[in-house]
């Protein structure tokens, strides 16, 4: 008789809802910073104010209509972005990682973030595709399945096979500003770690 061995891990993670249409990077950065340090003083608007260059000014007086509601980074080759500002960046990788590598990170209590390119059935701001950041903070592995728990600052939390996540996330009904997401693909994987104590 074959037993369906289960291995799973679910980190105690909460994803904030992004405050603006383009602030997924700030929501992910803030949520991950708070995961590693519940006393962190970072908020989406303060992290955005400190991360964007050149300095945009005050992002907190009206976050939904601020000059900070723009696409930005978690970490890039110039070493800027919300993960860098919050001190939790631990490198990044083009494309997605294997499920085994993902499990290793989560087993160490480390969150893994992803940048997805989403195709939409129409145009938003003269674009028919856009990029979006999410976090994986849980997995369940059996002899037949490899599932993950995805925390999305726009769509909310969902569970799905890892294979589906990396190649077709939210193709099954997600919509943005009235447009259906028709396809997606992981562009980058971002590793994180606790910030160093000063």
Short description:
The chain has 198 residues and is of the alpha+beta class. The chain is built from five helices and eight strands.
Would you mind describing this structure in some detail?
Residues 13-154 form the Peptidase C39-like domain. This is Peptidase C39-like domain-containing protein. The protein is an alpha+beta fold and 198 residues long. It has a single domain, classed as Cathepsin B, Chain A. The protein is 21% helix and 34% strand. Strands 1, 2, 3, 4, 5, 6, 7 and 8 form an eight-stranded antiparallel sheet that branches. α1 packs across α2 (44-51). The N and C termini lie far apart (55 Å).
Provide the fold topology.
Layout lengths: L6 E4 L13 H13 L7 H8 L30 H5 L2 E6 L4 H9 L4 E13 L2 E15 L4 E7 L3 E6 H7 L6 E2 L2 E14 L6
Antiparallel strand pairs: 1-4, 2-8, 3-4, 3-8, 4-5, 5-6, 7-8
- Contiguous low-pLDDT stretches (5 residues minimum) are none
Tell me what the CATH architecture is.
Alpha-Beta Complex
The amount of helix comes to 10-25%
Which class do the helix and strand fractions yield?
Answer: alpha+beta
* CATH topology label: Cathepsin B, Chain A
Termini, distance in Å?
55 Å
Average pLDDT figure: 90
Query: In one word, what is the shape?
Result: globular
Give me the CATH superfamily: Cysteine proteinases
Number of helices: 5
**Element-level helix/strand string:** EHHHEHEEEEHEE
List keywords for this structure.
Peptidase C39-like domain-containing protein; 8 strands; Peptidase_C39-like; 21% helix; alpha+beta; 5 helices; 198 residues; Cathepsin B, Chain A
């Amino acid at each position: 008789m074959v037993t369906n061995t289960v291995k799973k891990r679910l980190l105690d993670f909460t994803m904030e809802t992004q405050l603006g249409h383009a602030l997924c990077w700030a929501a992910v950065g803030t949520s991950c910073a708070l995961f590693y340090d519940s006393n962190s003083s970072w908020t989406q608007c303060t992290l955005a104010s400190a991360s964007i260059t050149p300095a945009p000014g005050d992002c907190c007086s009206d976050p939904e209509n601020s000059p900070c509601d723009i696409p930005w980074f978690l970490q890039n080759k110039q070493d800027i972005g919300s993960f860098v500002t919050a001190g939790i960046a631990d490198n990044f990788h083009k494309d997605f990682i294997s499920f085994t590598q993902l499990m290793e990170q989560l087993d160490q209590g480390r969150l893994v973030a992803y940048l997805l390119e989403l195709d939409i059935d129409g145009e938003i701001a003269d674009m028919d595709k856009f990029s979006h950041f999410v976090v994986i903070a849980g997995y369940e592995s059996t002899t037949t399945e490899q599932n993950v728990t995805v925390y999305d600052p726009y769509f909310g939390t969902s569970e799905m096979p890892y294979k589906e996540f990396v190649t077709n996330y939210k193709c099954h009904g997600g919509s943005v500003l009235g447009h259906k997401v028709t396809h997606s693909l992981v562009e980058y994987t971002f590793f994180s770690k606790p910030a160093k104590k000063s």
